[in-house]
């Protein structure tokens, strides 16, 4: 039997000063974390994988029957599910695209010294600190065609945002952009502040145009941070539920997470919904992997 | 170590079992968060005074009601002893083993006759015409209409209406008149609109409005006994009814694409619409001047008949069932015995509950108690409901998916929507072995 040699504690650390051994630390911190992870994360994950191959319904007492890949076949041949995926893809592209442009744009504006810069930055971060449900509810009021401030400010009369099937998804995406652009802005600011000043000075000496400076210096150096923001926002937007659920009932805003919720907790098609959850998981992992590969390539450059 | 663990487990189970018996003098009823639940709490306080058994009415918002109740049932939890569940839950509640069979209790107290037959059929019996009962009709409800009496009675409006449509403006006597009146009052420039409808597609809002129109046009959702849907769900009557609902939708206030009881009451309280569809359970708020500035000018009417004279209203309301996993079933039966007493049902009605007790419902006292009780009484004689099979939620989703884009978005035709729906439902019933 091989024993794993544990790294020795740094003798100057507080844990060492209190007389904690490596073993105590393992028992107190690491084992509970692993147990927690297994019980509440890995076990349900595997259990639901098992359910995804059955016709189990949590609402009836009948036992689960093994149906092989039937659930996956049924889902992948269901035009409604494909419509939900299309809606989700559209939502992800519009909302994440918007957030990247707005967030990075604001970060470029903030990346200079001016009075009350700190206060401005903090105020701009407020939307992302709010609860999704609250944001959804008050944007619903802002969009109201009769007395909402958006139509009033834009002079659009009684323009219907959320009841209009063609407009509803964009209306929800605009809300998401408002809420999450600050997140992109924050990461972009971190990236921008790390760009060495001497590069800009060198570009200025060479009389490089501002477009040239932006595309050849700023963008490549901020790109890794932007990609991280992109990964996080894409994953989140793909799983979006709250905003579309609260703001609109249009089939054109029924993203895949809403369909999953209805399938699992209104219709109680437990086996089928587990299969759908796994399809979603695979899609998210695939998209993230593509991004990470790209991120590594950008970093290497 | 093992001995220690066993000892601890034994201790915990002893504590739990003694805990359960300590709570035997308390019952918990689960219902949605709305006024009738508050009235029920007031009512059951009297039971506590009489018997010493405390009854607590626990509530949750409507949007969460179905999910929370079934999550508890599915986990075989004993948090609730009784549940005031939706009529559509009967199939899932009975076939899933979540509800206690009340057939003997029904027979013993002759409840099939004591309560209005339509309510027994809808809130208690499953499968249809089986003679098996699972709930006590508790809160009867039907979809009716509120309207602005002052607008309808305005002499100038009356004259203009007479000139335009050739008959007198009044409470609509059929769906054509309902449509005409909605069109007449639809004046977006003045901030006035014709009609408020249910359009919320997240659960059963839109479906209740559409099915009511279908029943009124002489149509059916399907054969509730044989599960045949082709030719029934997409019958010409149903197509005509759906076209009418779509037409009525043109006369709703702006942004009326996801509306249910709350918005439809607001349509009256905010002076937006001439007529508003809603369940009677929400009308007390309209009759109260504190919540409706137009309370004195608000009238109520029964859903009008359709072109063939068919006259129906969509059923709302709930029945009270004993949860199979309750630790206090005996106590729950005693409570139900108290609840079905005529004097208790009278008190229930006086507090604002919509009793289904035939004698109380038919009494002059009840029918004259509020401006809408008479319309409620009339409606309860003509109620019809959605499918009550365990897979009803799937059927709801399929109907929402097919019908909503046509009604609200104007996509496709009514015929296409209903043909698609018949195919979806047929496929679902085949999957559950109800159709060959």
From TrEMBL, chain B:
<keyword id="KW-0813">Transport</keyword>
<dbReference type="InterPro" id="IPR050490">
    <property type="entry name" value="Bact_solute-bd_prot1"/>
</dbReference>
<keyword id="KW-0732">Signal</keyword>
<dbReference type="Pfam" id="PF01547">
    <property type="entry name" value="SBP_bac_1"/>
</dbReference>
<protein>
    <submittedName>
        <fullName>Extracellular solute-binding protein</fullName>
    </submittedName>
</protein>
<comment type="similarity">
    <text>Belongs to the bacterial solute-binding protein 1 family.</text>
</comment>
<keyword id="KW-0574">Periplasm</keyword>
<feature type="signal peptide">
    <location>
        <begin position="1"/>
        <end position="24"/>
    </location>
</feature>
<dbReference type="InterPro" id="IPR006059">
    <property type="entry name" value="SBP"/>
</dbReference>
